[in-house]
Amino acid sequence: MNKEFNPSKTNFHRSLKFQKLESLLSKSKISVDINGLHGSSLSLLIIDLFYKTNKSIMFLCDDESEAMYIYSDLIDHTHKKECLYFPSSYNKLKSHSINKDNALQREKVCESIEGDNNRIYVSFANGIAEKVSKQNSNNENTIEIKCEEEYYFSEINEKLFKIDYQKCDFVQSPGDFALRGRILDVFTFSNENPIRIQFDDNNVESIREFDVNTQFSIKELKEIKIKPSPTSSIIVKDDCLLNLFNKETLIITKSLNTIKDMIDNCHKFDSSNYIKLNEFNNIITNKDYLINVYETHSDADINFDKIPQPSFNKNFDLLNKNLLKYFSDGFKINIYFNSVEQSLRFDQIIAKFENKYEYKKIIKPLYRGFIDKDEKKLRYTDHEIFNRFHSFKLQKRFSKSKKVKIAEINELNIGDYVTHIDHGIGIFKGLSKIDVNGKNQEVIRLDYGERDTLYLSIHLFHKISKFNGKDGAKPRIYKLGSGAWEKLKSKAKSKVKKLAFDLIKAYAKRKLTHGYVYKPDSSLQLELEASFLYVETKDQLKASNDVKNDMHSPHPMDRLICGDVGFGKTEIAIRAAFKAVDNGKQVVILVPTTILAFQHYRTLSKRFKDFPVSFNYLNRFKSTKERNKIVDDLKNGRLDIIVGTHLVMNDKITYKNLGLLIVDEEQKFGVNIKEKIRSLKENIDVLTLTATPIPRTLQYSLMSARDLSIINTPPPNRVPISSEVIRFENTIISDAIQYELQRGGQIFFVHNRVNNIEEFGNWLRALVPNASIKIGHGKMEGKKLEKIMLEFINNEFDILLSTTIIESGLDVPNANTIFINNAHNFGLSDLHQMRGRVGRSNKNAFCYFITPPISSLTNDAKKRINTISQYTDLGSGFNISMRDLEIRGAGDILGGEQSGFMNDIGFETYHKILNEAVEELKQKEFKSLFKNELKSLTTNKIETIIDTDFEILFPTNYIQSSSERLNLYKKLSELKNKDELEIFREQLYDRFGSPPKETEDLIESVRLKWIGSVLNFRKITLKNNKMLCYFPDQSENKFFNSKKFISILQLINTIDGCKMKEKNIANKKSLYAIFENINTISEALENLNRLQLIDN
Predict the structure, then answer these.
(1) Would the pTM count as exceeding 0.85?
(2) Of 716, 615, 602, 609, nearest to 314 (Cα)?
(3) Same domain, 678 and 777
(4) Contact 998/951 with Cβ under 8 angstroms?
(5) Which one, of 84, 143, 126, 347, lies nearest residue 240 by Cα?
(6) Pairing mode, if any, of strands 302-303 and 30-35?
(7) 3-state secondary structure of 722
């Protein structure tokens, strides 16, 4: 395919050296050696070669990170579709576990090579060394399906099993397929989205891509090819990717000798999956167009002579002089920025100088800057100027969304405890069929105490929720109608209302108190923020702005920053602390452990290195002399920031001008410290950080009583931690350690038994004699422990063998492997926190949970291990596996007594009661405080119960999976309006085909319920060809005196076969309207619509 060259990409093609290279490549067969390509000049050269030579390019280097940085440059400066990355199938060499994301990407690359379009391909030694199948042999086992053609369902089913696809209820990842009626869903290894094929008998009616998260179709297709799974034994992998390219393809290698060494190592490790070195050599030798890139090469055919961007170490005087010099010499200045915000910070800093030069801002990332003497142009990057970390772009991963996963964890299974808001806690027994006047009805069965059973209408699904108590606590189950549940709920309500009152009262008091108003950001503040090593996430920026807005307001700040481990809470605290110091205030950073105090001190040392801020830390390891000096410095204002444990809250310590208290993990402190924090909140600004998840359901309630900022977004380029459950086997542990050591990394090894940790250390030293190992635990002498931690942070030894003291606070980006011995003995929260010690850089991180055989574990331990190993996506601990931690977190924030109520009545019931209490207080006692807030949607509608003998359900021949029927009943009960109902109907059709009459009636019954609610009917009964519509209890005088009731009565008198009646129910008079000859849901709707006063 011919491409029109776009000269705006780069200007390399104008140089004589490029033209020489282009001339050499015009020969029929050529191998060229080049050097002098520093910074990102190699990336830009590849782009120009691609557009000028009209060839596909395969770029190959030795290192995976280098390959990803080059790939990022290419997709940032070309059309993304023109570049493809070719990974290894495995996360690391000595692993037999295939990464499905990578397998999908490899297949995509192999397919694209067969196409007509030229592309740039990027890979590294391990990726190219791994064998691929010859495309013709792959095609022999490919299933092709086209629209409007006939196929036998049974044959497709057999073929899918043959090529190693797994049958399931609903597809979630490549290699899954599902059959539902005349619909086949399949997730292939050559499509980013799964495919839905709808049949009419054996004829293919339609082929559609659909979203794996919503299961909803997104695009029509004409045909689909289903290629075998990479793990299928039917696939013969005996070829190298390079052999798939045509003769015209340009191969570019960087560090060829190292590539060859690594390919040789791969083959020695696993000869069946990796090519031989001589095979690679033969392929490279026989390629028609080859460019070898070297760092230095005295005999190179061309030396491009690019110069790396100088290091300025955030010295802007030095930068200014450098730019002025080159500008005076006639150079053009281009500066690449990752964001507009960063470019504005740069402008503000440079504006301090009387510069006499111009620079062009390019809002586009670049890996490394360089000086181009041929072109007379500087190409500098902001991240190198500010010493910021630059992340490469990860290839797109398929994934289920967090929402889907949350749904999974809350999914009801038979035997689960559930809470019914009216009847209390019971045991869920699944869906049951009952006979109502000879018609099938599907209901939810709940078992209670003393063998009581409740059959619940599917229309009342919203009244039940999965019981969630702290750390898997089992609830008490009462007999139905005993009154015990109402008594318990009433007690909880009164306590919750008092809690809500106290929370909002404290909030109101703070809003009426005048505090210090901080000045706008100074140039020093901007400089500090620009020097942050990483690119801020949107959530981080929002949280930081929230804090600044609080500090600029006339009221004391009390803000809670909530975010998962490693999501960047500390940086927000640092910026707030600097702002306070910049305004002449002192700052206290209160932490729960000595290790965390030391870690924060280290972080401050790095961040404030070039800024006029004095700081220190205080813990039990400091000598009396050191403590006295710190206390004196705080009193006299010589110390701006103090980091410390509870010691910093000592009454003997006085501060000259304390303005900000930052509390890390407040819930970990005792009652006395919490009381001191509470008293300080009335007069100074307080910022609290927590990695304990605040359940989303509580966030709304708390936001009425405390300012919250939630950080849900992981830092860019963080790779999910590869988690594996392993046995205590020497070979497995040794291989994993050696792999980390070979890539220059460090290792955490958690062994939580102080009594034999030394003996364990001796075993570990014998296992990996080439590794330097040190031991750390809480019972060591303080100074010694601190020294060991500092040495590990400074990369002075390889393996830290420790107890759980590393659980929170220790941040070692170079440590990317962690072993947790006897992982089954830890809680989910502990496992999640410890796993969070790794994966803090752009390297693949590994967590190994060492357990006895899974079969020997208790059910609870199995569940914990399965959960923590399955959910590895960033933030997943925050949303799923930390469900027990959420409840703990809610209890920590709201108080221990409240935590007790959550265990008694279930978390969902508790938060519902709390929301109602907060809403009531806002509209009554604290109405003036919240007068400007949008009022919650309140309505006079009541809930209508539908009781019918019509068959309204999802038949099993329409939806076979009982869990999915249950899920759909739940969704149906949660719909709020006509639009949502219509979308639900469309999704049903899309996923399961045309709904049968029973399902159509079920959907329409929801509309009937809504209309009944508008008309204030508390119950609608559809039985024996009659519809009875019951009004509220007659004690509801407001309704019966309303215009609405009078209008309904008048309309009823105009309808044939409709009359009013009254009867006694439980010694109370009940008024109802009776409609005769109602045989269908449609007829019921038609009659109610005639009564409807408000359009629904």
Answers:
(1) no
(2) 609
(3) no
(4) yes
(5) 126
(6) parallel
(7) strand
910 SS3 class: helix
The whole domain housing 549 covers 522-699
Residue-wise pLDDT tens digits, 734-779: 999 998 998 899 999 999 999 999 999 999 999 999 999 999 988 8
Q: 978 and 840: one domain?
A: no
Structure tokens at 944: 């209508």
Candidates 855, 858, 813; CA nearest to 838 is 813
Q: Which of these three, 367, 385, 403, is where a domain ends?
A: 385
Q: Could you give the CA distance from residue 1072 to residue 1063 in angstroms, rounded to a whole number?
A: 8
Taking the C-alpha atoms of residue 273 and residue 1015, their distance in angstroms, rounded to an integer, is 70
Confirm whether 998 is domain-assigned. yes
* Residue spans of alpha helices (H) in 818-895: 828-835, 859-870, 876, 883-894
- What burial class does residue 350 get, using C-beta atoms within 10 Å of its C-beta: 0-12 exposed, 13-18 middle, 19+ buried? middle
Please name which of 640, 589, 576 lies closest in space to residue 612, comparing C-alpha atoms.
Answer: 640
Provide the edge-to-edge strand list for the sheet that holds 439-447.
453-457, 439-447, 424-436, 417-420, 464-466
Q: Are 419 and 425 in contact (CB under 8 A)?
A: yes
Does residue 932 fall inside a structural domain? no
Amino acid letter, residue 552 = H
CA distance linking residue 1072 with residue 1026, whole number of Å = 12
Identify the three-state secondary structure at position 503: helix
Specify the DSSP element, H or E, that contains 335: strand 332-337
Say if residue 753 is in the same domain as residue 682. Answer: no
In whole angstroms, what is the distance from residue 971 CA to residue 981 CA? Answer: 10
Residues 177 and 242 in one domain: no
| DSSP helix, strand, coil percent of the chain (3-state; round to 5) | 40, 20, 35
Residues with Cβ within 8 Å of 376's Cβ and at least 6 positions away in sequence, in order, are 329, 330, 331, 332
Contacts for 991 with CB less than 8 Å, ≥ 6 apart: 180, 183, 196, 215, 216
Q: Are residues 673 and 556 in the same domain?
A: yes
Token output for 154 = 């049974």
* Contact assessment for residue 440 and residue 488, using Cβ atoms and an 8 Å cutoff: no
DSSP secondary structure letter of residue 756: G
Number of domains in the chain: 6
Highest mean pLDDT among 68-72, 346-350, 866-870, 935-939: 68-72
Tokens of 818: 């962690």
Same-domain status, 549 and 627: yes
In the chain, the amino acid numbered 291 is I
CA-CA distance, 118 to 50, in Å (whole number)? Answer: 8
Residue 507 forms part of a structural domain? no
Query: Rounded CA gap, 935 and 795, in Å?
Result: 56
The backbone torsions φ and ψ at residue 161, rounded to the nearest 5 degrees and listed phi first, read -65, -40
CA–CA dist 506, 556 (Å, integer) = 12
Same domain, 155 and 191: yes
- What integer pLDDT is reported at residue 409 of this predicted model? 42
Instruction: Give the SS3 label for residue 1004.
Output: helix
pLDDT range class, residue 893, cuts 50, 70, 90: low
- CATH number of 630's domain: 3.40.50.300
In DSSP terms, 420 is beta-bridged to 424, 464
The CATH number covering residue 211 comes to 3.30.2060.10
Distance CA 1083, CA 407 (A): 36
Task: Say if 2 falls within a structural domain.
Answer: no
pLDDT digits over 206-234, tens only? 999 998 877 888 899 999 999 888 778 78
Place of tokens 């410390």: 644
Coil, strand or helix: which one is 249? coil
- Same-domain status, 539 and 654: yes
435, β-bridge pairs: 440
Provide the H-helix boundaries in 593-639: 594-607, 624-635
Lookup: tokens for 628: 């006295």
CA distances to 158, 164, 169, 200 from 153, rounded to whole Å, are 9, 17, 17, 11
